[in-house]
## 1
Amino acid sequence: MSVADNEVRQIESDEAPTRFARGWHCLGLERDFADGKPHRITAFGVKLVVFAGEDGKVSVLDGYCRHMGGDLTQGTVKGNEIACPFHDWRWGGDGKCKAIPYARRVPLRARTQAWQTLVQDGLLFVWNDPEGNPPPEDVTIPKISGYDDPEYTDWVWYQTTIEGANCREIVDNVVDMAHFFYVHYSFPTFFKNIFEGHVATQFMTGTGREDIIRPQTEGSTAPKSTGNSSVASYHGPSFMIDDLTYHYEDAPDVPSVLINCHYPVDANTFVLQYGVIVKKLPGLDDAAAEAMARKMGDFIKIGFEQDVEIWKNKTRIDNPLLCEEDGPVYQLRRWYEQFYVDVADVAPEMTERFEFEIDTTRPNEAWRAEVEQNIADRADAAEKV
Amino acid sequence: MSVRPDNRLDDGPMHQVTCAACSALVQVRKSSFEQTSIQWSDDALDTCVERRAASPRPGPNGETFSGCQSLRESIRGAVEHGDLPVQDDTPTPVNPEADTEASHA
Ligand code: FES
Ligand SMILES: [Fe+2]
C-alpha cells in the first residue's frame, strides 16, 4: 500500500463567521408580538425589543435605552412608544426619542437603532445588513397566497433554540438528499437543486417510509398516502417556503405550505422556527382542519428534533467528503457566502445559476431494501411475542 | 469563510456544452446518465431563449425557472457524441448506443 492509501482524511473547520447574514429574517408570528407588551429577542448578537403600539404597528428597536442603558424589553408600551423602566424615556418605532416626561425638551440626536420590519402573511420580518443599507427593491419575500385564503388553516407554529451550532447547518439541509431518508423518514425519489440570485430551490418528490409508523395512519381511516411533491426555496439566507402537496389514494391532493426559517442569536446559536398552513379538506370544520395541520406539524417536528440532535453533536466541517449521490453542498455554500460579504464583494459565482439533479436510482435501491428488511424484522419480532 | 472546491470534481471536471438552440455556453458535469450539474454564467442565462419565454409556475416559489429543455437535449447529444463524459456510464435505458460512444470519450 502506498503512503497515499494510508493517508487519513482530516476534517477542516474554519471558525464560524462573526458577522451575520444580510437579508430578511423572520422573527415569528406577528400575532405573538401583538399583545401590547415588549418582547425580548436576542438576534444578530444583540438584544432587541419588539413591541406593538396602540396603532397595532410592530416595531423592532435595539434593546438598550440610549439614556443610561436601561433594558427596554422590561419597559412598558405607552401609546405607540416603548417606555424605559429606568427613567420613562419614550422611544418610537422609528427609533426617535419622542418624549421625556420630566424634561423640558428631548436632547439632540436622541435616536436609537430601529430595524426595518416587514409584516406579511402573518409573519414578522426584520432586515439585517451589517453595512446598514436598506433592502434592495428586488430582495423580497414572495406572498403566500394560501395565507389569505379562507380555505386554508392559520399557522401552526413551532420554535426551538439550537445551541452549539452555526446556522449554516440548517441551510446545508436544502441539498442533503440522503438525510431526508435517515433523519426525516421520507423517501426521496426525485431531487434537484437550483441556485440563482438570492434564491436556492429544492425540487423533491417522494413517499413516506413504509417502515415508519406515522401517528396519523395508525388505526385511522384516513386515505392512504401515496407520496408528496415539494418545491422549497430559500428566499435569502434564512427564510424557506416549502410549497408541499400530499397525494392520497382515491382522495384529492392536500396542498400545504411549510415555512422553515431561522435567525442567528450569535455565531454558535440560532433560533429555528417552522410552521404550516394546510388547505382544509371538504367537510372538515375549522377545528378538525386545525387538528390536521397540527398533526402534520407534529410529524415534521420529529424530523427537526432529529436534525437538532445531529447538529448539537456534529462538528462544523468545511471539507465534507461527498459521494456522487450527495447533493451540491459546496455549491450551496458558495451561494450562501453572498450574504456574508459586502454587497460590493458579491462575486458572480455566488449568484450565477447552478443546477444539480441527483440520480436517485442507486439510493432508492438501497433504501427499498432497507425498508423491506425493517418491515420483515418487525414482523419476526411480533411473531416471537 | 472560504468555500473549498467540490471533492467530486477531482474525479471528473465540468465540461463546456453549447446549447444548440441559443448557443449559450455552459459548464456541465454528468455523474450518471440521470445525474447532471449545470453551471450557468449570467451571459449564458441572458442568451437562453426558453428562459426569456418562461412564465412563472404557480405557487410562492414559481419564479424559479425549472430549466431549459433545449439545453437538456444538447447535453444528451453531447453525451451521445462522446463529447461529454459520464462518470458512471452504465448503459442508459433510453439509448443503448450512447453508452459505447460515451465510454470512448
Ligand atoms: S435609562 Fe432609559 S430612561 Fe433612563
Ligand atoms: Fe433536516
## 2
Amino acid sequence: MTWDDFVLAFFSWQIVSEAWPILWDGLQRTILMSIMVVPLGFLGGTILALLSTVHNPWVRWPAAVWTDVFRALPPLVLLIFLYAGVPFTGLEISAWGAVAIGFFLNTGSYYGEILRAGIESVPRGQQEAARSTGLTRWQTMRWIVLPQAFRNVLPDLISNTLEVVKLTSIASVVALPELLFQARQAQSVTYNATPIVAAAVIYFILLWPMVRVLSRLENKALAGRR
Amino acid sequence: MAIVEATGIHKHFGALHVLKGVDLVVQEKELVFVIGPSGSGKSTLLRCLNRLEEPSGGAIIVDGVDMLSPRTDINKARQRIGMVFQSFNLYPHMTALGNVTLALRKVLGLPKAEAEKRGQAALDRVHLADRAGHFPGQLSGGQQQRVAIARAIALEPRVMLFDEPTSALDPELVGGVLEAMRELRQDGMTMVVVSHEMAFARAAADRVVFMADGAIVEQGTPDEVFGNPQHERTKAFIGQIGRH
Amino acid sequence: MTNWERFVDSFFNARVAAEYFPKIVEGFWLTIVLAACIIVTGLAAGLGLAVIRAFGLRVVNLLIIFVVDLFRALPPLVIIALLYFGLPAAGLSMDGFVCAWIALAAVLMAFSEEIFWAGITAVPKGQWEAARSTGLGFLQTLGYVVLPQALRMTIPPLTNRTIAITKGTALASVVAVPDILGAANAGVSFSFNPTPLTMGAAAYLVLFLPVVIFGRWVETRFAWKR
Ligand SMILES: Nc1ncnc2c1ncn2[C@@H]1O[C@H](COP(=O)(O)OP(=O)(O)OP(=O)(O)O)[C@@H](O)[C@H]1O
Ligand SMILES: [Mg+2]
C-alpha cells in the first residue's frame, strides 16, 4: 500500500465533503442527546445524593443499593435491555426513550456518587453553625452544604460530564442516528474509512477543550493539597 | 430572671457517660465562665443547650421555652441562642455580609435590603463594617471570628454561647475578639463562655464554673474560684494553668 | 395469559435460560479474560508513560500529553470502530477481541498515566532532594522513594477508573466478540425471547457488583481527597 493509497483510504477530502451532510446531521443529534441526558443524569444524581443523607435507613439503603447496581451494569447492557428486551412485554419503547431512561439510571448513579462525596467533604461545623442560627435541615442543605459540595467536586463533575458525552456514542448500537452511527453508515456506503476518521476528529475537536480544562483543574487541586 | 435553666443534664455517647447530671442556671445579663480539663464535657454541655447535641436526660428552658419539648420549633428557638465556635465555621462561599444576612433572610424572612441593613449594623458592632464584601479566606482569623460573632448577634439572641472562641487564634489576634466580647457584655448580653483566657475571666466574668468528669465540681465568683478554690481537683487545675 | 405471566415468560423463561446458560458462562469467562488483558497492559503502559514523563524531556512530554488527551477525548466505541471497521482499508484486519483490547487498554493507559503522574508530582520536592543528597540516582530515587509514596495515593482513583473502563468490555459485543453481552444478544435473536439478556445482566451484576463495592471500600480505606 502506497502513501497515496493510505491517504485516500483514511483522509480523503472528497469523501469528507460527500459525507459531510450526513455527519453534520449525526453531530447535531449527538449534541442534542448530550443536552438531554446530562441534566437528566444530574437530576437523578442530586436526588440520590440527597436520599443518601437521610437518617432513615429505609431510605438510605435502597438509594445505596440502587446506586451500586446501576454502577455495576455496563451502560450498553442497560440500553440494549431497554431497547431490545422491554418490547417483548408489548411495551413499545423508542431508541430515544431507551437512551433517556438508560442514561438517567446509569449516569444518575455516577453523579449521585460524586455529589454524595461532595456533601461529605463539607465540614460538619458548617452544618452546626447554620443550624445554630435557626436554619432548617433543608435550608442548611440548600444554602450552605450543596453550594460548597458542588464546588469541592467540580473537577469530578466535569470529568463525569465528559464521560457522559462520550458515552452517547453507544446509542449508535440501538440505531439512533448520532455521529458514530452516521459515520458507520457513510463508511459502509463509500467503502472508505474516512468517515469514521472524520467522526473521531470531530469528537476530538469537540471534547479536547474540556479535557484541557479538566487537566488544569486537576493540577490546581493537586497544587492546593501540597 | 433566669435566661437559661438546665437541670439534671445527662449525655451518653454510646457507653461513654459524658455529662452526669449537670445543673446550670444563667441569670439575665450574667457572664458565666466555664473552665475544666480537656474532655470534661464543656463543649458537650454548651452544645446540649441549643440541642446541637441531643441530651439523654434532663430539662432545658431557655428564655421560657422548653428546648426539649417535641412541640417546640427548634429552629425558631435557636434564633434566641447565638453560638460561636472554636473553628469559626464561616461559610467560605459567602462574603462576610452574606454570612451574617443568610439567617436573617431565610429564618426571619426579612427582605434583602432590611437584612443587609441589620447585617451591616452587626458587622459595625464588631468593627468590621469595612470588611462586609470580603470572603472568609481574605480575612485574618481574628476578623473571621468577629464576623462569626456578628452572624450570631444579628439575630438578636437572648443568650450567646462561646466555645473556646480564641483557641484557634494567634496570640496577637486574641485581643480583638475579647474586646468584641467585652463590648457585648457592656451592652447587656447574657453569655456562657468556655475558654482558657483566665485573665479575661477574672476581669469580665460574674461567675466561674469548674467542670470535671462530666459534672460541675465547684462554682463562684472569679475571686473565690481562682483565689481560694475549695476542691482538690479545682486546686490542681488552677495550679496547672497558673504555671503556664 | 395475564400480563404477569407474559412478563415472566419473557424475561424469566426457564427453558430458554437452560438452553443458553452454557453460552452465557462461556461469555462470562471471555469477559474476564478480556478485562484482565486490558487491565494488565493498560496500567503497565500508563505507568511506563508516567515514568518517561518524569525525565522532563520537553518534546517527549508534549507528545505524551497529546496522546493522553487524545484517548481521554475519544469515545472508546469510536476507537473500536476505527480499529475494526477502519483499519481493514489499510489491509490490516484484526479480530474483534484484539480491537477491543487495544482500544480499551489505550484508554486505560491515558487515564492511568494522568493519575500516576499526579501521584508522582504530589510527592514533595524535599523527598527528591533528600534521596539525591544521599547519592541515589534519578531512577533509584523514583523507584525506591517517590513511586512507593505516589502509588499509595493513586490507589483509590485508579481503582475506580479501572472499574469504569473494564465495564467497557461490553462494547466488544458490537464487533462480534461473544462476551457476556455478545452471547446474550445472540441468544435473544435465536430464541426470540429476552431471557438471555436477563441472564446477561445478572452475569454482569455477579461480576461487577462485588468490584464496585470493593472500589467503595478502597476509597474509604485509602482516603485521598483530591
Ligand atoms: N460526637 C461524639 N461521639 C463520641 N464521643 C464524644 C463526642 N463528642 C464528645 N465526645 C466525648 O465526650 C467527652 C467530652 O467531650 P467535650 O468535647 O465536651 O470535652 P471538652 O470539655 O469540651 O474538652 P476540650 O477542652 O478538649 O474541648 C470526651 O471524652 C469526648 O471524647
Ligand atoms: Mg471543647
